[in-house]
Specification:
With about 525 residues, the protein is of the alpha+beta class. It has 15 helices and 15 strands. This is MFS transporter.
């Protein structure tokens, strides 16, 4: 088929290119590498794999989007232009600092704070564009013309390819690790905690207005700072107010806590802290945090005099910095991403990611309660639903194994990221099947009541942890209260299903009217 003469077939050909086994394999490799392997095994292999697989996916993805927007364009020029644009963009990003910075800004808009570094060794992946061109020549011979295939490409392949390509940038985890004084201004050094073990500052933030404002050093300031850096006083675990040697501050190792003394260290009191209970919740808000005693604790501080008193700035790792203003108030400041902005941390609000474990458990609890009630009703009504009980049980077990922190084994932890999604989906499939068949036994009002009780059990489990996240209750008390709600909900759903499930009607012989013996009565 000559797709240049039949321009109406350009989108199906591009979908065939995107759906070719080689491209699909590259999509799978990108998703698995970027979402699983790169975080667990950072290094040369996982870093380069994204580049090689990404070039195989980017060109057909770009061509598919262009063909969808302009279906009358000839196929071959679109394919060649997509390959050329992909190659040029990849070269500009990997070979120039400006291209890498621009790509970082674009990717941060899609995926949150991230960084792409220029690395000319990555240009070794460019030959994969030739492989992509070969795949194109194979795909154009068998365009995806069937409606079902087109829908599959639009609903599955295209979103999957977008997810794979967008995920290729390495994350940047802001990590305040150093603090010093430069030209009478406090400067905080920020590393990237994504590179575990390497806590060397990559970005420097300059304090303004006595710690009330922050900005990243510009290129000229950074050059001057690096030239003078070796002679600057480095922040340590303890510092005193200039001119007041008896008034000092110190960090508490392994804690987000600062102590203060006004009598040369005879007595110390807590001047600022994030309590251990609050830090336990806070630690869940950070991806791949590692040991909180290292990455979520006070590292170093400096004390700087001002016209109105003194300022204390503390580097707190992933939590940013804590600032004691001249009036004695303490505030927390967090830095956004690679070269982003600094803002005061908002103590209000709940991060759903920090309650991911409890949310997954709440979903599993709700499904288990609904499934138990439906199964008991169906069982009492002699309806066989065992084939739906199996995915429900397996899904709940898989979801439990996939919950972060539930399994410490490295292999299970890798699989857990998939199980935490696949498990509840499998359990949901089982519950839907059970409830459909239980509907043959239970009246609609009782079936709806079982569903409502199941949902209430899940909410009852989650609600105490929302209170814990707001500091209203301790974690252990939240777990006890949530467990009580779970037991009550599951027991209620099970009792309801068993109590009101209609048992099968007994088989009885039909009744017949009594027939009198003897001759019929005589007519009057």
């Amino acid at each position: 088929m000559d797709d240049d003469s039949r321009t109406r077939d350009t989108p199906p050909v591009m979908l065939a290119w995107l759906g070719h086994p080689v491209t699909v394999l590259a999509i799978v490799a990108l998703v698995v590498n970027d979402h699983l392997l790169k975080a667990e095994y950072p290094g040369l292999v996982t870093g380069k794999l994204s580049d090689f697989a990404g070039l195989l996916v980017a060109a057909p993805l770009l061509a598919t989007v262009v063909a969808g927007l302009a279906p009358r364009l000839p196929g071959t020029p679109v394919a060649l232009a997509s390959i050329g644009v992909t190659g040029l963009a990849f070269t500009a990003v990997k070979a120039t600092a400006g291209g890498a910075a621009a790509a970082s800004a674009v990717w941060s808009g899609f995926t949150g704070p991230s960084v792409i570094l220029a690395d000319r060794t990555d240009l070794a992946a460019l030959p994969m564009l030739a492989v992509g061109g070969w795949v194109w020549t194979r795909a154009r011979r068998h365009p995806a013309t069937r409606r079902a295939v087109r829908r599959f490409g639009a609903l599955v392949l295209l979103p999957g390819a977008v997810l794979a390509v967008v995920a290729t940038s390495a994350p940047f985890y802001p990590d305040a690790v150093a603090v010093t004084v430069w030209r009478n201004q406090i400067v905080v050094g920020q590393a990237n905690a994504y590179h575990a073990g390497d806590r060397q500052p990559e970005i420097w933030w300059l304090s303004e207005r006595d710690g009330r404002g922050w900005r990243a050093l510009d290129s000229a300031e950074e050059t001057a700072f690096e030239a003078e850096r070796s002679g600057l006083p480095a922040g340590t675990g303890q510092g005193c107010v200039p001119g007041e040697p008896a008034h000092c501050y110190r960090v508490v190792p392994g804690k987000l806590r600062i102590q203060e003394t006004t009598d040369s260290g005879t007595t110390w009191r807590t001047s600022w802290e994030v309590s251990d209970e609050a830090r336990r919740y806070l630690s869940r808000s950070y991806d791949d945090l590692g040991d909180p005693a290292i990455y979520l604790s006070s590292v170093a501080l400096v004390v700087q005099p001002t016209s109105a008193g003194h300022v204390v700035v503390v580097a707190n790792g992933r939590d940013g910095v804590a600032v004691r203003e001249p009036d004695g108030r303490w505030t927390r400041v967090e830095f956004d991403g690679y070269g982003g902005t600094a803002r005061r941390a908002d103590p209000s609000g709940i991060d759903p990611g920090a309650l991911a474990q409890e949310i997954v458990l709440a979903l599993l609890v709700a499904l288990a309660a609904m499934g138990l009630g439906g199964w008991l009703a169906a069982r009492r009504g002699r309806v066989t639903v065992v084939w739906f009980v199996v995915p429900l049980v397996l899904g709940c077990v898989g979801g439990l194994l996939g919950i972060p922190g539930m399994a410490s084994d490295e292999v299970i932890a890798l699989l857990g990221r998939l199980l935490v999604v696949l498990g509840p989906l499998m359990a949901l499939t089982g519950v839907v099947g059970i409830l459909v068949f239980a509907g043959r036994v239970l009246p609609v009002r009782w079936l709806l009541l079982i569903i409502l009780i199941g949902l209430s059990a899940g909410v009852g489990w989650l609600a105490p942890f929302v209170g814990w996240a707001n500091g209203a209750i301790g974690y252990r008390n939240a777990a006890l209260l949530g467990s009580a709600c779970v037991l009550v909900g599951i027991a209620a759903a099970g009792w309801l299903g068993h109590r009101f499930g209609r048992p099968p009607l007994p088989k009885t012989e039909p009744s017949y009217p009594a027939v009198p013996l003897g001759p019929p009565p005589a007519a009057p």
